[in-house]
Amino acid sequence: MNDPQHPSQVSEPSPPKRSSMGCFKFFLIIAGACAFAFLICGILVWQSVSWLKNAPDPVPATYEPLKLSGGEQEDVERVIIEIEKAKNAGKLYEDYVTPAVFNGLFEKIFEGERLKGKKDVPLAFRVGLVDKDKLSLKFTSPIVDQPSPDGKPLYINAEIDFEVEIVDGELRKAKVHRLHLRKREAPLLSRMVVNWFVDQARMGTFKDKQGEDQMKEGLKSIKLLKRDGARIHFILDGKEMAAQEKLKEQQENAPQPNTKKELPAEKGGF
Q1: Which of 40, 115, 221, 261 counts the most CB atoms within 10 A of its CB?
Q2: How far apart are CA 58 and CA 157, in angstroms?
């Protein structure tokens, strides 16, 4: 019998020894996970580079002619006249227009730019409505500074679904939900990069050589732009629009700097 005053000593079991093979397997799993992550990143980067590289299209997309009803055509003419009045009087102009009228306005603007000899004017521009709060945009624009190897022109054919809201010349909301170039959907990484650039532009990160935010300067004349139900609501600052047009005209008419280097005169000898 055991003496209750002197209990017997019970030896505790020794802790199990850790196997070096178990640690090796653990690190092998981590290395495999990292390799898989790098592989996925590599695939995403390759998809994005391939998608962007193949974006220029040798053929412009085809669009149905913009068909406006008699009332919509009258609205286009009315808005153009009212905008001119706002610029001359230096006042604000507010309106709610359908996407068809909005497209008609831009078609008129682009026609005027082509008559001035501009080569970078979009060939087509179509705004539509998507879901309850988004806009869609389909456009085709020539790439004037990057012809194909055989010298033929190239084009950007784009389709975008996005949210946008401009208030007092500031980009308050902007997000791209869908982006197609040359009828190819943007890979996930490309959409993330596009939205990152959009956010940076919205925050005024990008500046020119003079330290100015060119996008903010360009949006100064827009007091409001957003989707409002089945229409597009905008408020334009006529005074700011007139100032921007005057500045643009001065820049276009300014003499171009002479970039040709003069050859040194030959020294005559006797």
Answers
A1: 221
A2: 10
CA distance 261 to 270: 28
Distant-in-sequence, close-in-space partners of 100: CB < 8 Å, separation ≥ 6: 66, 68, 69, 72
Amino acid in the structure at residue 25: K
Residue with tokens 């580079």: 49
Reading the block at residue 81, the tokens are: 């006249």
**Which tokens hold the place of 249?**
């005209």
Task: Dig out the tokens for 219 from the structure.
Answer: 């949006």
Dihedral, CA of residue 179, residue 181, residue 184 and residue 190, to nearest 10: -50
pLDDT cut 90: percent of the chain above it: 37
Residues 36-74: pLDDT tens digits? 444 444 444 444 445 556 678 889 999 999 999 999 999
In the chain, the percentage of residues whose pLDDT exceeds 70 is: 71
Question: How distant is the alpha carbon of residue 69 from its chain centre?
Answer: 32
The number of beta carbons lying within 10 Å of the beta carbon of residue 124 is: 19
Tens digits of per-residue pLDDT, 66-119? 999 999 999 999 999 999 999 999 999 999 999 999 999 999 999 988 888 888
3-state DSSP assignment of residue 228: strand
> Which residues share a beta bridge with 143?
154
The three-state secondary structure class of 244 is: helix
Distance CA 68, CA 102 (A): 11
Q: Rounded CA gap, 16 and 18, in Å?
A: 6
CA dihedral sign of residues 31, 37, 43, 49: negative
* Residues 18, 215: Cα–Cα separation, whole Å: 62
Locate 166 and state its tokens. 């401009």
Average model confidence (pLDDT) across the chain? 78
Q: Which two tokens stand for residue 254?
A: 């300014």
The single-letter DSSP state of residue 221 is T
